[in-house]
Please model this.
Amino acid sequence: MPELDEQTQPLSTLELNSLLETSKVLVASTDVDQMLSHVLRTVMGKYVLSRAAISIIERQEESEYYTLAKYRGLASPPKRFENLSAFMEANQFEQCVPLVSQTRRIGCLLLGKKITNAPYTNSEIAFLESLAALTASALESAFTLQEMKRLNRNLDQTVQKLKTLFELTNSYTVWLSREEILKIFSRSVSGQMLIRAYIVVMIDESGKPVTELSLGIELQNLSQGQQFQYELEKAFQTQKPMNITHDDYPMLYLSGLHYIVPMRNNDKTIGLFLCGEHVTKQPFSETDLDFISLAAAQAANALEQARLFKETLEVQAMEKELQVAKEIQTALLPKTLPVISGIELAAKNIPTKQVGGDYYDIMMLDAQHLFLAIADVTGKGTPAALLMANLQASIKAYMNAFNPETFNLSKVVGKINNIIYENTPADKFITFFCAVINLQTRTMISINAGHNPPYLLKKSGAVQRLTKGGLILGVISTLMPYEVETTVLESGDVLLLFTDGVTESMNRKREEFGEERLETILKAHADKPASSLIEKIIEETARFQPMGEQHDDITLVCMKLSV
Model:
């Protein structure tokens, strides 16, 4: 049997021992850098090399490239390259031994010339290939372990982030103030993500962005600049987390802010969380920004819930106050109407809100005199009700001092006008009608201060409107006496007082109910009791208007003289 040539000799015992020792080192270590250093030392020492390197294949989407993982004897080589042949030629590498595991190509072992310039023998190449196989297998295991550790770290971080989100959910309560909610949010996020600089920006009542909280950012000079305000307004247009670049946001970027995270609720950005980089200066990953975005959405929702809760409390408090006001106002109107032989009285008041600005009064001044009044205060709701109460107090004061020998209705109305004028704003006034009826002589004196003229339907069917009087109450002080109208009442007459909430009721075509319709109803139902006549008018106005759309207070007073 012929002797084997030196080029084809199998691995020597020394080489096998070297591989065994290398295998032990590679298996015992999980540190990739330590593995690569040991492999380079082994080949460079064994073959007396001046340079050697190990490159690892990296893959990104559909492309791949090489990174220089470990090297010896090279001066400032590129850390990343795509053309392996060009890299070997530029750095005088003579041998390339692939690092191939059972599943994939991992990289390659690059060797320079021997110092002796001797070529690599087949035996040496066989050793290098065996060494490369051991190295590839060990690297595959190390990379797998690294990936598992990375996944575990990511899982731990995800669990911690979820825990933070859960804790934030439990921390937010509807009775927290906006400042408290923003502090909880910003401190939790900055602590979880190790952020060393941030600002929280909200929109103020004028619609301008205002910095509510900040950490690590000098705002004294920035916040006054127009460019800073412009960039904040521009940032409010973003709908998802994004990087802050110098080109788009130079002022924000130079101030140390690198990310914009909108605080959104119901598809609307109500605030911004702008933050700097991680304390490690590593960029935030997509999952990091997703976490901050979720926390920001939680805070935005908490702010909205707190706002709605506050509004609910305010509404409840207002409704309670209005209920009290309604009870007070109801007490100002007559609880019962006088019972008078030969005269039938009825009245109805329907405010559009809990309290209104319509007023009526019916009271006996003495055994022989009956007082009727109706009024309509400008506006609706609480302001009108307060003015109505002022009018009622003035009327009561003068009517309680009634003396038939000295009573002068014109002077009384003039004094009431002065009181209203002096104690109300210029845009508030009152239309007013009042009458005093002598029950013995059935003579009525009345004054109309700009109110809808009442109807006096005579038994004969004729209609008389009571128009004499003067200016609306509260417009100017009394310069001229109010004119008194005297009317003799007869059996069968019907007197109807009303406010413009009746005649100005509108249908869907924006047509008014009008006085003509009211007069027609009055004539058609004059034979009915006073209360039935009022109910009929209310029924017809309700039918005329769209359901639930009463736009003004409605008040009616009716007096019928028996036949």
Remarks:
- The mean pLDDT is 85.
- The domain at 6-146 is CATH 3.30.450.40 (Beta-Lactamase).
- The longest helix spans residues 122-171.
- The radius of gyration is 48 Å.
